[in-house]
Write a structure and sequence with these properties.
The complex is a heterodimer. By secondary structure, chain A is mainly beta. Helix content of chain A is 5%, strand content 29%. In chain A, the strands form three sheets. Chain A has a five-stranded antiparallel β-sheet with strand order 5-3-2-7-8, with helices on one face. A two-stranded antiparallel sheet of chain A has the order 1-4. Helices cover 40% and strands 0% of the residues of chain B. Classes of the chains: A mainly beta, B mainly alpha.
Chain lengths: 151, 236
């Protein structure tokens, strides 16, 4: 994973794109989780839902200001609570010298499920249970190498 | 960073723009020349001296407090409350034992900004500044190579606590200038007596802030407070 999607860089949310969304999809959701972290795992880095079915992906750098609006292509999308209990993307910060694996999962839903604001991953999955008609996954890794001190 | 819930208040002055606290210091002359006036051109806004913090540290601190409690549509924030000056003054006095923690923390914070965002904190956009602060608060900055002592969380919590003190503490201690902080949270001020009419006005948001420090009241005089505590020693 590129540094700018992590706190070793700008820590902006990465762009995602998907295709072959099943017919009958009414909305989409995305979760990023690290199953090698958290007590218990997974440690959640990102939760996004109410994504329009017309979206072909997520643009990079979604807002970290809750008052800011989403880009027009994903109008109406909502960011849920990550593991730090913030409604934003926060990228990988694994222990120095280790490599972790990050599962970006997109869910296609067959209904406009009533999803309240600030849902956690667990709450989202419970709410969309029975409505998932398709799933896609992107699985990058990130190794945190000790940084050099600035001059 | 927690958004403070703010009540709508009647304000007589507009929000002072954070731009009034210019973060670009004018060039410092070489030691062999003295420079007592700003360079020719537009007059720079006068800046109040800091006692303990260097120019770089105070610029960074001002930029940090400006993001923690911003000046915005809700009104003045930590800058106008002089929270950074409160911290500086405290580091010369009551918080002197934390000066080294600040020095080390500022150095690590600066390194983290340069390593991760490629620029000093003061040169980042507000969004990137918020992003940095979130990473420092959460501890994600700790393993970045910036060299925070322990976790970056400790530095963030220290600065946040003192920013809150400097914004919402009694102005006697050097912050909460012009009662900016108390007005922000709708605290109507220290009162030794509250009448029923006061209480009713308060409940209708009509109680006018009295803008008085606790030490404007004889009963809260620092000398008498010290004398009272000496006569009432506790085991701890």
């Amino acid at each position: 994973m590129a540094r700018d999607y992590t706190p070793d860089g700008r820590n902006i949310s990465p762009p995602l794109s998907w295709s072959s969304v099943p017919a009958g999809t009414k909305e989409l959701a995305v979760v990023c989780a690290d199953f090698g972290a958290g007590a218990p795992p997974p440690w959640v880095h990102w939760v996004v839902y109410n994504i329009p079915a017309t979206a072909t992906g997520l643009p990079a750098e979604l807002p970290i200001d809750p008052a800011a609006s989403m880009p027009p292509a994903i109008k109406g999308a909502t960011q849920g609570l990550n593991g730090w209990r913030r409604p934003i993307y926060r990228g990988p910060a694994p222990p120095v010298g280790t490599t972790h694996v990050y599962y970006f999962t997109v869910y296609a839903l067959d209904a406009d499920v009533d999803l309240k604001p600030n849902l956690t991953r667990a709450e989202l999955l419970e709410a969309i249970d029975g409505h998932i008609i398709g799933r896609g996954e992107l699985v990058p890794t990130y190794e945190r190498r000790p940084g050099k001190t600035a001059p | 960073m927690k958004v403070i819930s703010r009540r709508e208040l009647l304000r007589t002055a507009g929000a002072v723009g954070a731009a009034a606290m210019a973060t670009d210091a004018f060039p410092v002359a070489a030691p062999s020349t003295s420079q007592t006036t700003p360079p020719s051109g537009a007059a720079a806004a006068p800046r109040e001296a800091y006692e303990r913090l260097t120019a770089t540290e105070s610029d960074m601190l001002e930029a940090i407090v400006a993001r923690l409690i911003p000046t915005d549509a809700n009104g003045p924030g930590a800058i106008e409350a002089r929270a950074a000056h409160y911290i500086d003054r405290a580091l010369a006095g009551a918080l002197a034992d934390q000066l080294e923690a600040y020095r080390a923390g500022f150095a690590a914070f600066d390194r983290y900004c340069r390593l991760s965002r490629g620029k000093p904190f003061v040169d980042l956009s507000a969004t990137d500044q918020d992003s940095v602060l979130i990473d420092v608060e959460s501890g994600s900055a700790t393993g970045s190579g910036a060299g925070f002592t322990g976790s970056s969380v400790a530095f963030f919590n220290m600065v946040k606590a003192h920013t809150w003190q400097g914004t919402f503490g009694d102005p006697y201690y050097g912050g909460n200038a012009n009662f900016v902080g108390w007005d922000l949270i709708g605290y109507p001020g220290v009162r030794t007596m509250v009448t029923a009419a006061d209480q009713q006005r308060l409940e209708k948001n009509e109680l006018t802030p009295n803008h008085r420090s606790a030490y404007d009241f004889d009963g809260f005089n620092k000398a008498t407070a010290r004398a009272a505590s000496h006569g009432d020693q506790h085991g701890d």
